[in-house]
Amino acid sequence: MNDLLQTVSGTLPASAVRGPVLAHEHLALDLTRGADSAATLTPGHRAAITEELASLRAQFGLGLLVELTCRGMGRDVAAMARIAADSGVAVIAATGWYYEPFHPAELSRTSAERLAGTLVGEIERGCGGSGIRPGVIGEVGSHGDVPSEPEARTLTAAALAATATGLSVATHAQFGRGGLAQLELLTAAGLPPHRVSIGHQDLLDDPAVHRELAAAGAYIAFDTVGKESYRSDRVRLRLLLALLESGHADRVLLSCDVSRHGYLLSEGGMGYGHLFRSFLPRLRAAGVDEELIDRLTRRNPLRFLTGRDGADDDGPAAPGGGGAADGRADDGPEGGAGPEGGAGPEGGAGPEGGAGPVRRR
């Protein structure tokens, strides 16, 4: 358990994050493949992204953003560092591999142990010679109900690297499928379930699977909020309320997964703030109180990142949020690295009881 978060600007005490956290986002990526040329966030979008985040910090106290662009997805940690500095929002970078159709060819010949060594090297020394170190492993992917053999190796590598370094693992479960198999692989490699977030579960209309994952101790990521072409927010709200009512409020993470420039506010999209401007008001209207909102949007992601599962947290956030000490960390590397390139489409056990049923006003 480590109460220090590794951000693109250096280490940051988790207790310094007094505002909400976006648990799965992208600030710089290139997911273009075939005809999908719009799945990018490039240097040309940086000013609009920075403006959005600065506005969310001012209006909602946004304190931290977890940036899950990993190896082969066009990751640019130097761009993340500039956005963090200019917006005042702390940013955590990631490492790992996406799902199989977008794996580099060399993965087919590499063992899970060697892949884990590559991840550990980035975590300990920084990405691409930049000195900027990842603070989470993800979004490590699979597609289908059972990971393919290469996906099983990259998931196993993620678990091995996580246990060696003390980081947590966030997954990409394509359209929400395969989460149980992902969790089985990760825990079989020695990773405690409370260090795992299973991604895109708001795209899976299966409350029984959500309950099973949560009862095992994993975090359930409702992380495509606002992506109405995949799943309506009306259905997301129903699925979330069902999970809260079943007593698993301590297992939920929320985010929007902005993964193409068309989602930016400047281009008419829902933006990074859709969670705060649209979805959370609907959650409040359904009777969820502010203490539980803070748990879902701040305390849960901080517990996931630090591994403080079952530990007493620091209580509700200060009124008005408060961000994360202007997004600046204690220390940080100088310089940075350019984009890494890549292609791909968008795309011990924890407690079983959670925080009890949803609290109604």
What is the residue-mean pLDDT, rounded to a whole number?
A: 88
- Name the poorly predicted regions: 330-356
Tell me the Rg in angstroms: 18 Å
Number of strands: 13
Structural class: alpha/beta
Biggest sheet overview: 6 strands, parallel
Q: Which descriptor suits the 3D outline? A: globular
Strand order of the largest sheet: 8-9-10-11-12-13
Count, helices: 9
Written as H for each helix and E for each strand, in order along the chain, the element string is EEEEEHEHEEHEHEHEHEHEHH
Strand proportion: 5-15%
Characteristics:
single chain; 361 residues; alpha/beta; six-stranded parallel sheet; three-stranded parallel sheet
Report on this structure.
It contains 9 helices and 13 strands. The protein is of the alpha/beta class and 361 residues long. Strands 8-9-10-11-12-13 form a 6-stranded parallel sheet. Strand 1 and strand 2 (10-13) form a beta hairpin. Helix 1 crosses helix 2 and helix 3 packs across helix 4. The model is unreliable at 330-356 (pLDDT under 50).
